[in-house]
Amino acid sequence: MKALIYTGPERMSFTDVPDPVVRPGDALVRIESVGICGSDMHAYLGHDERRPAPLILGHEVSGVTDQGQRVTLNPLVTCGTCGACQAGKDNLCPDRQIISMPPREGGFAEYVAIPERNLVALPDHLNSDQAALAEPIACGWHAVRLCQDRRQTARNALVIGGGAIGLGSALSLVANGIEDVTIVEPNALRRSFLSERCGLRVVDGSALASGMTFDIVVDGVGYEATRTMASAYAAPGGVIGHIGLGSSQGGLDVRRMTLQEITFIGTYTYTAQDFRDTVAAMVDGRLGALDWTETRPLENGAQAFSDIRAGHVAAPKIVLNP
């Protein structure tokens, strides 16, 4: 099969590779759409030691099984038997794996093998590019659920970052009853896109006035500067949901968080139930038109990575079609 291979920092190769090995209990999925995630970009830049070259990246996947069923894929493979899995917190399984990280190759290819239990069937009215958004939106859905569990009376929210994770978080907030949502996005091209296409309030960080506070703050970026912003704008008794994996250190104002009893929640991916709930919300239209992607052929994937790196992409998500 053909695949887009990460071969080293800022290097990708579109070439022939062996077909996936299908283990007992696996399904072979012919990939129709696969999104470029921020974690793929981290690997592409050489910043993710968990994804060493050479490797097939990509874990935001939709396609068709060898039985002809249209599906989207929960890329998180867990044991199903440990305490975390049995408690419905399978994203915390100590033996978890994810496609696009060894030992499992990812979805920037024509086919991928994954356990059948990780497949979620799709209705005809949700196209493959839309279905590939289930994974990034589920990250936001999970974070919002955890934040609302802690702050059940939340009236407003700030989302830091206007990429797919941030946008998915904002859409999830609205779908779960919080309509007063502000997104901070520094890229003017993307701010314009989100405002016009998605009808959301999107501002540059400088537009946030001193003294403004938000009951829920979602950091979809994860750098020192964004954690500083989250610490400053979280309301007393508020919650910070931290999804972004941009860097590992700095930014939190622990003194203010202590004095104002601000809860910090690190959030990782989603549970299997969160993923299914996200797909159900997509199918029902509760997450909007899902028309905020840009589609390119997989063979042009290297250029797509380069364009994202250069800040030339307005859409929150580029989806590649094998």
Description:
This protein folds into 2 domains: 2-133 and 290-321, Quinone Oxidoreductase, Chain A, domain 1 (Alpha-Beta Complex); 137-266, NAD(P)-binding Rossmann-like Domain (Rossmann fold). The chain contains 10 helices and 18 strands. The strands form 4 sheets. Strands 3, 5, 6, 9, 10, 17 and 18 form a 7-stranded mixed beta sheet that branches. The protein is an alpha/beta fold and 322 residues long. The model has no long low-confidence stretch (mean pLDDT 96). It starts with a strand and ends with a strand. Helix content is 29%, strand content 28%. Helix 4 (134-150) packs across helix 5 (164-175) and helix 4 (134-150) crosses helix 9 (272-284).
Quick structural gist:
It is built from 10 helices and 18 strands.
Annotate the secondary structure layout.
Blueprint lengths: L1 E7 L2 E6 L9 E10 L2 H7 L10 E2 L3 E6 L4 E4 L2 E2 L5 H4 L10 E2 L12 E5 L3 E3 L6 H4 L2 H17 L5 E5 L3 H12 L4 E5 L3 H11 L2 E3 L10 E6 L4 H10 E9 L11 H6 L3 E4 L5 H13 L8 E5 L3 H9 L7 E5 L1
Helix pairs in contact: 4-5, 4-9
